[in-house]
Amino acid sequence: MNDVAGQIHHAAARGYTSKAEVYAQGRPDYPPEIVDWLQKQLGVGAGQTAVDLGAGTGKFTRYLAATGARIIAVEPVKQMREQLAKRLPGIEVLEGTATAIPLPDNSADALTCAQSFHWFATKATLAEFHRVLKPWGKLALVWNRRDESVPWVAQLRDIIAPYQGDTPRFTSKTLSEVFPCDGFGPLHANRFPHPGHTGAPEDVIVNRFRSTSFIAALPPDEEARVVAAIRDLIASTPELAGKDSVTVPYDTVVYWTNRTG
């Protein structure tokens, strides 16, 4: 595949190329209950093939691997694929994009996009998903969402918001603009309580926001100003200041459907 980085959003191409290791370290995991959900709701298990598209560094891929299915991770950014291969050496990793998945027609029992569908939420993408999925194969779109009803979480959002530009983010419109879609059934939703992202503030707050695509893509001096503002917020927030360990609150939402015929 030629110039795959040129086929993805500029913020993802620059940010994830330069900050792949920070992404691997700074992003939260998913609720452990997701493995049981994948097995029972999506039917993913031994003897089946599941594709994790936009797999990044493998944060969600390892939950798929726990189902016993054959897992194929597809990721356009070389540095992210390298991090995934390092962390999950038994997983097949391929270079590809949402509109050019390097797999045959009717080859996947399930296809997942974790923390990624907002980058490529188009009808053309869903047509490619339809091509790769087997008849009645399952599609799952997964996001961890920060709880911005917590004041300091909302303040963190406000620090980075001026830098977002045209970078896609998951909103209510992400799905409503492409579903319903011919070739797929109704879209269902499941929500899971999340234990939160717990660790040193430098890891679960500073590095988490440094791994945001449009922050990771900033020139070093601008990134440094954002990081300084985040550290100032930590130092001035009683729930965070001076703590060796903090918890960033999240929940997890999964939208799923199946290919019809």
UniProtKB/TrEMBL annotation:
InterPro entries: Diverse_substrate_MTase (IPR051052), Methyltransf_11 (IPR013216), SAM-dependent_MTases_sf (IPR029063). Gene3D superfamilies: Vaccinia Virus protein VP39 (3.40.50.150). Residues 51-140 form the Methyltransferase type domain. Keywords: Methyltransferase, Transferase. CDD domains: AdoMet_MTases. GO terms for biological process: methylation. Pfam families: Methyltransf_11. One of its GO terms (molecular function) is methyltransferase activity. It comes from the Bacteria. Belongs to the methyltransferase superfamily. This is Methyltransferase domain-containing protein.
